[in-house]
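Researcher: We plan to redesign the surface later, but first we want a full-length starting point. Tokens attached.
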């Protein structure tokens, strides 16, 4: 009996994540279901696809040999569904844009401008996640990335540069004059990330300046950090496009060159020429061009010198 496509899709997720548990979370099914479907796939193929290890599941040589073809099947299945949606005049094609928290928030806050640029050519789905999805497996259509991948065949274009500065409320800074000096790192309260997110650039930057002393307030997401700073409990490095437009916040530093990061769009080569995708990519270029000064933090005439 030939294998089912749904089992091949599960095979790809286990291959990508390395464990049944992680694949189950990504697919929102039980671990037992993952195990049953992999067993069924191995039986139908007459091949052992994974080695069961204490740390997870590792592809066998046979499994590794099948990954490229399975990836092509996933891409073809996604194309089939997209073309079916386009063929139905009642449906607008959907383009999924992925970014980490600040990039996704930037897109969401500028959706009116972006949708106006697109002109109804596609509906947009904004995905926020810390795990980068695979373009090859069609887990997203466009990635907004702060760095280019080391290898691969992705098409990329630089969109702009996101600047960061230290922000706090006017009341907090008035009560803590050290916030406007280099003494801020030891003499002021800070809002940062918890240990699970210590790898973030802003978390590492703050750790270096505080000599390893953790921030007084620790949060699990960027937007919670923003809310805590707005509440007046301390300082935090924030994107300038966020801090400058918030009437509750003021800059306590210049734009921080060590935290500034480029933003690129990345797409898979076989999707770039898709007309709805091209409209979205052109819309992104126009949006980032129009917002370049606000994004970089050069609009704030009160920037400290």
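Model: Full-length starting sequence:
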């Amino acid at each position: 009996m030939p294998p089912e496509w749904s089992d091949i899709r599960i095979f790809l997720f286990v291959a990508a994540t390395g464990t049944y548990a992680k694949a189950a979370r990504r697919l929102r099914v039980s671990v037992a279901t993952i195990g049953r479907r992999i067993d069924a796939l191995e039986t139908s193929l007459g091949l052992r696809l994974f080695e069961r290890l204490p740390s997870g599941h590792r592809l066998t040589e046979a499994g590794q040999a099948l990954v490229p073809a399975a990836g092509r099947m996933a891409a073809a299945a996604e194309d089939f569904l997209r073309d079916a949606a386009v063929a139905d005049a009642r449906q607008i094609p959907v383009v999924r844009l992925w970014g980490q928290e600040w990039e996704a928030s930037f897109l969401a806050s500028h959706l009116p401008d972006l949708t106006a640029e697109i002109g109804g050519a596609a509906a947009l789905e904004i995905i926020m996640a810390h795990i980068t999805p695979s373009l090859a497996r069609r887990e997203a259509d466009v990635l907004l990335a702060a760095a280019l991948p080391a290898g691969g065949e992705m098409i990329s274009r630089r969109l702009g540069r996101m600047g960061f500065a230290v922000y706090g409320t006017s009341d907090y800074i008035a009560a803590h004059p050290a916030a406007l000096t280099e003494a801020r790192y030891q003499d002021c309260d800070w809002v940062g990330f918890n240990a699970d997110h210590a790898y973030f650039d802003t978390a590492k930057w703050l750790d270096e300046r505080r000599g390893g002393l953790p921030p007084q307030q620790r949060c699990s997401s960027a937007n919670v950090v923003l809310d805590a700073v707005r509440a007046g409990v301390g300082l935090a490095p924030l994107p300038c496009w966020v801090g400058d437009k918030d009437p509750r916040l003021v800059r306590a530093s210049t734009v921080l060159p060590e935290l500034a990061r480029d933003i690129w769009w990345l797409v898979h080569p076989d999707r770039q020429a898709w007309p709805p995708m091209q409209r979205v990519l052109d819309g992104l270029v126009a949006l980032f061009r129009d917002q370049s000064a606000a994004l970089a933090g050069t609009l704030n005439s009160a920037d400290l010198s």
